[in-house]
């Protein structure tokens, strides 16, 4: 503590003036530099729900040190869910370690129930997390080792969804807040149907049959109470799962999707929904009529032809005859009309047949070219023109 004072004293002696004139020189005042007290790591610079310490905590987590400083399972899981919400691109890189840590932590029925509830709440309460939540559920259903008597992860998840499913009619008739929560559940169940894989005894992968039937009943509940936000939720669900549901129903010989479309048409005619919502419903009917926007390509071993491929002429240009009639490659007399077009159009109006510019000299490239062809080239060119004319007449 004495050392700095000695340095100051020594410095003052070295800088002491030798004369009175130097003492009289005015000293220039320097304005103090204002330094911000706000750190770059301040909470103001992070989105709400983002834990800036999560990456380090998660990377340092291990079974011996209390899981990176997390005291409870809920704290650890919720931090990871928030982290995944803010940075969904980290899923592939971090999900394996997350599942490994859970296998060391989740070793009781209560802990597994808590894990299911945390993920369910995040997927149905945080906007845009339903897809990521469904992917997370699918991964954990295959990689969590605990399987208590009360049921494994997938079974407990479906039981939790059934609790909400059984209240579907009351929720669809409820107030705005109740319906909003119900719609989040509906869309999560749709994502779960698309992403939750069930492996059979022979190794085949299928979707959960119970979810397929559940989505049908949820659509009935939404259309039975045709207020605007219920109908919008139904449109979103069908855009998400419509093609997959219809394929699955057709495999069973069912025509359930036609019944759903008929229900939509009745709603458009009878319900007192807004004009915009009716427009959305009609667009959905149009989407289904186009096979949900899917283009079925021809078989790999079969060459595409106008007979077996309806889109064969899709990318062909449209031309016009001399009288303004449009024609394309799909027209029977396409070749004749196209040849007529070639003869009618002067493709190089500014140049003579031998390439000389009518506009006169000035272009350095053309100025260097002789007007006459080499005799051998000229003879070959005339022969080519005669053969072309002969083929055209045939």
TrEMBL record:
Gene Ontology biological process terms in this record: regulation of translational initiation
Gene Ontology CC annotation, any one: cytoplasm
Domain of life: Eukaryota
MIF4G domain ranges (all copies): 74-291
InterPro entries: ARM-type_fold, MIF4G-like_typ-3, mRNA_TranslReg/HistoneTransl
This protein's record includes keyword Cell cycle: no
One matching Pfam family: MIF4G
GO MF annotations, alphabetized: RNA binding; translation activator activity
Subcellular location, record wording: Cytoplasm
Entry keywords, A to Z: Cytoplasm, Translation regulation
Protein name: Polyadenylate-binding protein-interacting protein 1
Source organism of the structure: Alectura lathami (Australian brush turkey)
Lineage: Eukaryota, Metazoa, Chordata, Craniata, Vertebrata
Gene (UniProt): Paip1
């Amino acid at each position: 503590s004495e050392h700095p004072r000695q340095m100051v004293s020594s410095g003052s002696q070295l800088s002491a003036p030798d004369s009175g004139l130097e003492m009289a020189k005015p000293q220039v005042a320097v304005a103090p530099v204002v330094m911000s007290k706000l750190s770059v790591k301040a909470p103001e610079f992070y989105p709400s729900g983002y834990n800036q310490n999560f990456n380090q905590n998660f990377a340092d987590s291990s079974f011996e040190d209390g899981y990176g400083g997390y005291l409870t399972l809920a704290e650890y899981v919720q931090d990871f869910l928030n982290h995944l919400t803010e940075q969904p691109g980290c899923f592939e890189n971090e999900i394996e370690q997350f599942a490994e840590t859970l296998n060391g932590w989740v070793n009781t029925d209560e802990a597994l129930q808590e894990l299911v509830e945390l993920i369910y709440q995040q997927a149905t309460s945080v906007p845009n997390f339903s897809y990521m939540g469904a992917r997370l559920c699918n991964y954990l259903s295959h990689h969590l080792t605990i399987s208590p008597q009360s049921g494994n992860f997938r079974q407990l998840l479906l039981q939790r969804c059934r609790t909400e499913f059984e209240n579907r009619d009351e929720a669809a008739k409820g107030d705005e807040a109740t319906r909003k929560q119900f719609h989040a559940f509906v869309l999560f169940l749709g994502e779960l149907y698309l992403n939750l894989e069930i492996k059979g005894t022979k190794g085949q992968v299928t979707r959960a049959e119970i979810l397929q039937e559940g989505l049908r009943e949820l659509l009935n509940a939404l259309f039975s109470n045709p207020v605007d936000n219920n109908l919008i939720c139904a449109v979103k669900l069908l855009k998400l799962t419509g093609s997959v549901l219809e394929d699955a129903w057709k495999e069973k010989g069912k025509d359930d999707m036609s019944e759903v479309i008929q229900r939509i048409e009745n709603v458009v005619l009878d319900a007192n929904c807004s004009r915009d919502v009716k427009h959305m419903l009609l667009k959905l009917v149009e989407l289904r009529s186009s096979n949900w926007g899917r283009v079925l390509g021809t078989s790999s071993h079969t060459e595409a032809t106008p007979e077996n491929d309806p889109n064969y002429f899709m990318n062909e240009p449209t031309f016009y005859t001399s009288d303004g009639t449009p024609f394309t490659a799909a027209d029977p007399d396409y070749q004749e009309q196209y040849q007529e077009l070639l003869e009618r159009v002067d493709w190089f109006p500014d140049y003579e047949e031998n390439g000389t510019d009518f506009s006169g000299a000035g272009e350095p490239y053309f100025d260097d070219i002789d007007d006459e062809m080499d005799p051998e080239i000229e003879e070959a060119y005339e022969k080519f023109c005669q053969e072309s004319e002969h083929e055209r007449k045939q």
